[in-house]
Amino acid sequence: MNKILLKTLLGHKFKTPPIWLMRQAGRYLPEYKETRKKAGSFLDLCYNPKLATEVTLQPLRRFDLDGAILFADILLIPNALGQHLEFIEGKGPSLKPIKNFSDYKNLNEVNKIHDILNPVYDAVSNIKSKLEKNITFIGFAGSPWTVSTYMIEGQGSKDHIKTKTFMLQHPEIFDKLILKIEKATVEYLSKQIVAGVDAIKIFDSWAGSLPGHYLEKYSLNPMKNIAKELKKRFPKIPLIVFPRGVGPMYEKFSKMKEFNCIAIDSNIDITWAKNNIQKNSVIQGNLDPAYLVSGGKDLVNKTIDIVEKFSTASHIFNLGHGITPNAKIENVELLIKTIKDKI
Ligand code: 1CP
Q: So where are the chain's domains?
């Protein structure tokens, strides 16, 4: 097996760390914009196996990356559970929000999700058949907490006040919703694995907005349950967790034995992470995506700093969050050259 990313997830250490980038497919690539136009809407792109394959492969044709991430979205789960979803140009996702028990009751049964998600599994097998043998293929889903914020807010939010108010005022409904997302996510990820992904990542992009002990209850525990079930069904498939924004609580998340790797955001100090996290788990991260806009010496120096700090144990190079639409292609090239050629 020559998949160095997969081997690193399993605890091997290479002189040069493997690299992939969160949101490596997307609007900073002209070829993505073209395919996206051809598809019609963003959802049409996600549910078109041929075009989803095309955009998954686009960054790999341009860059010397070690991993491919399935082109899909964390909001396909709410959609498959029956929630109306559209992506509005220049504004982002828009869903019909869940406001009460009757909205919750109207969601589809978990076993119905595949009726909608089948094209995603077709995309996975299609991508698998086209990937070079040295590329690690990553499947993914959102965490129950992060997905619930979109289901309740009905759109992206910075403070998640509606979701937290719902959680505090209707704990019985909220618990049921989290459990339902958890179960749907296990089934969704299991099908991705059967269709051919090599590893799984769970994105908890909004973990940082949960207060106090709710972080454990609604972020950590549901993700742990998903990971436990996946490990029972597929013991060899490595799992990555990304509890973005949890600060010093990263240490606790990194001790979850069910996950092989923890992705850290750019706010985490790399020396702290080396001393407190890397001893518990393989580490992934954590260049700020802004360096891919600004480029130059700063990008080179920061990249070398991250690689050197994490070089004593297993490390996967990545950003601390998704690449932005204004990232420059030449800066992505410079980043990869810096890592692979050690300039
Ligand atoms: O206009 C467009 O083309 C849509 C932009 C876009 C893209 C390229 C969206 C809408 N989703 C995606 C693909 C995507 N989303 C991928 C696969 C591609 C890749 O990584 O190369 C992945 C892994 C995601 C995951 C995702 N979607 C997350 C978790 C990661 C993160 O960035 O924190 C989240 C929070 C979403 C929701 C979402 N989807 C799209 C947008 C604009 C958003 C964020 C909405 C908000 O502001 O809250």
A: 4-341
**Residue in this structure with the two tokens 């395919």, named with its chain if needed:** 35
Please, which pLDDT band fits residue 342 given cuts at 50, 70 and 90? Answer: low
The model's pTM is: 0.97
Instruction: Using the mean position of ligand 1's atoms as its centre, give its distance from the Cα of residue 130 in Å.
Output: 23
Q: Is the CB of 240 under 6 A from ligand 1?
A: no
From the CA atom positions of the chain, what is the Rg in Å? 19
Contacts of 310 (CB under 8 A, 6+ apart): 17, 270, 273, 274, 278, 283
Does ligand 1 lie within 6 Å of residue 242's CB atom? no
Handedness of CA 266, 333, 65, 279 (dihedral sign): negative
Query: What class, spelled out in words, does domain 4-341 have in CATH?
Result: alpha beta
Q: Is the C-beta atom of 73 inside 6 A of ligand 1?
A: yes
For 131-171, write each residue's pLDDT tens digit.
Answer: 999 999 999 999 999 999 999 999 999 999 999 999 999 99
* Cα distance between residue 257 and residue 227, in whole Å: 9
Lookup: tokens for 87: 């992506």
Give dist(CA 324, CA 167) in Å, integer.
Answer: 31
